[in-house]
Design goal:
By secondary structure, the chain is mainly alpha-helical. It has a domain at 144-158 and 212-314. The protein has helices spanning 10-31, 33-51, 55-66, 70-105, 115-125, 132-143, 161-177, 184-202, 214-247, 278-306; strands at residues 150-151, 263-264.
Length: 314
């Protein structure tokens, strides 16, 4: 991991270049050389326009775009759509990479916007940072935390669960590729797997061709709880508790406190969707309950494997 500030985005650029190259190979193989060449021309002209805008370059770009047949234009649009999906994955992965870097290498200078940096800033901005009065104020603030993000289902939401799964696999592969100690064979496997996922994205419809039913929207919302929130929220609260103890000794989350909860309009918003009936809302609650119970059962099973102590030695 580079330590110089000027190099901090180098891994991101490398990831984008890698994913872009894999997409280029996919375009050539599955879309044809003509599509690849057209996309590259558009990309080059757009880069010129950004670096050094000129009427001549703008005219060339417009002439190229206006001259495309409908099928060719659709192909170019899809190519850029997939490219920006890959860029977004790389950027999200890089944010996690930078977070790990700060935690490992600069624990006393935490990342801007992190919990640690925010608490340090609060302490630094106070005239008497170590007084009991400040700790009481902080404890009062922590006791009053009640953050409730609300899940919604918007009709313009186009991200298909199929694509989200592919995005997740690409992110996992990028994480695996960050290991500097990877054997060459494993690195080659990762590159092949990345190429397969990029190709699969190109061959997958990005937009749904049939409208979502309400229960489809419910399952889509639950997907984020299943894959991310059930694990990340407890980790976030653990981090908050640890950082509070380090920055404001004695300030703590109360036992049983739930400062971060989630609400959902999906499957229950009758004003927003006339298809939401009492039966739909009941089924929504059942699906939420089933996911919660399944998550608890998985956690209990994991705990039983960890707690291997015998009663003979207790």
């Amino acid at each position: 991991m580079p330590t110089r500030k000027t190099d901090s985005n180098l891994p991101l650029r490398n990831d984008i270049r890698l994913l872009g190259d894999l997409l280029g190979r996919t375009l050539k193989r599955l879309g044809g050389t003509k599509l690849f060449d057209t996309e590259e021309q558009v990309r080059a002209l757009c880069k010129q326009m950004r670096a050094k805008p000129s009427p001549a370059t703008e005219r060339r770009l417009k002439r190229l775009l206006h001259g495309l047949r409908t099928d060719d234009a659709i192909g170019v649009i899809r190519a850029f759509s997939v490219y920006f999906q890959l860029v977004n994955i790389a950027e999200q992965h890089h944010r996690m990479r930078r977070k790990r870097y700060y935690e490992l290498h600069t624990p006393d200078s935490p990342q801007r916007g992190s919990i640690a940096q925010t608490l340090q800033q609060i302490r630094a901005d106070n005239r008497q940072p170590r007084t009991a009065s400040l700790r009481r104020k902080m404890q009062s603030v922590i006791n009053g935390l009640d953050i409730v993000p609300v899940m919604t289902a918007h009709p313009t939401e186009a991200a298909r669960r199929t694509l989200l799964e592919k995005h997740r696999r690409i992110a996992d592969l990028l994480t695996a590729a960050d290991d500097a100690a990877l054997p060459p064979r494993r690195r080659e496997e990762i590159l092949r797997d990345l190429a397969t996922e990029v190709e699969a994205i190109w061959l997958t419809d990005e937009i749904r061709h049939t409208p979502l039913q309400v229960l489809d929207e419910v399952n889509n919302a639950l997907y984020y709880f299943d894959t991310t929130l059930f694990d990340s929220v407890p980790a976030l609260l653990d981090e908050l508790a640890a950082r509070l103890d380090r920055t404001f000794p004695g300030v703590r989350l109360r036992d049983g406190a739930v400062p971060l909860r989630f609400g959902s309009w999906v499957g229950g918003d009758r004003d927003g969707n006339p298809n939401v009936t009492p039966e739909i809302t009941w089924e929504t609650l059942r699906l939420q309950q089933r996911l919660t119970i399944r998550k608890y059962l998985v956690a209990v099973a994991d705990l039983s494997r960890r707690l291997s102590e015998s009663v003979r030695y207790a």
